[in-house]
Design goal:
The chain has 140 residues and is mainly β. It contains 2 helices and 11 strands. The chain has one domain: Metal Binding Protein, Guanine Nucleotide Exchange Factor, Chain A.
């Protein structure tokens, strides 16, 4: 049984369009300092795996943000487009690029140990510290 969903999205100015064909319908929030610096708050994202294609890729700039990942954005309007894991090629993408309100379930938060005290979500979710998240990847 395949419980992934397909969707199309775009950046703010429309210079980059994206098609994702294997979106996990679970919304997550990352509270790490890098994500908060990148977007001014938690990174609300969905896992699109590697089944992602772009139109207008000439307008995509990529920043190597760590030893294991890079971040892409529209070089015209600055919209965040993805956080891509270098080893697997998985794209963790901003949920707001897609019109998927009813299809998504906010179910997890990572780097909860770095979340500042000035905001919180009322949803009941699974939470992981940064150390727990890295341990999960080292076990796979």
């Amino acid at each position: 049984m395949n419980n992934t969903i397909d969707a199309k999205g775009r950046c703010l100015c429309g210079a980059v369009e994206v098609k994702a064909t294997a979106i996990e319908p679970k919304l997550g929030a990352c509270h790490c300092s890098s994500c908060r610096t990148w977007g001014g708050g938690p990174y609300l994202s969905i896992d699109c795996k590697t089944s992602v294609s772009f139109t207008g890729s000439v307008n995509i700039s990529v920043y190597p943000s760590s030893e294991w990942a890079e971040r892409g954005f529209c070089s015209t309007c600055g919209s965040h487009l993805f956080y891509r894991l270098l080893q697997s090629g998985d794209h963790i993408m901003p949920a707001g690029l897609f019109n998927l309100d009813a299809e998504l379930d906010f179910d997890h938060q990572v780097f909860i140990d770095q979340k500042p005290s000035y905001y919180c979500f009322s949803n009941e979710t699974t939470t992981m510290t940064g150390a727990e998240l890295f341990a999960q990847f080292s076990d796979s």
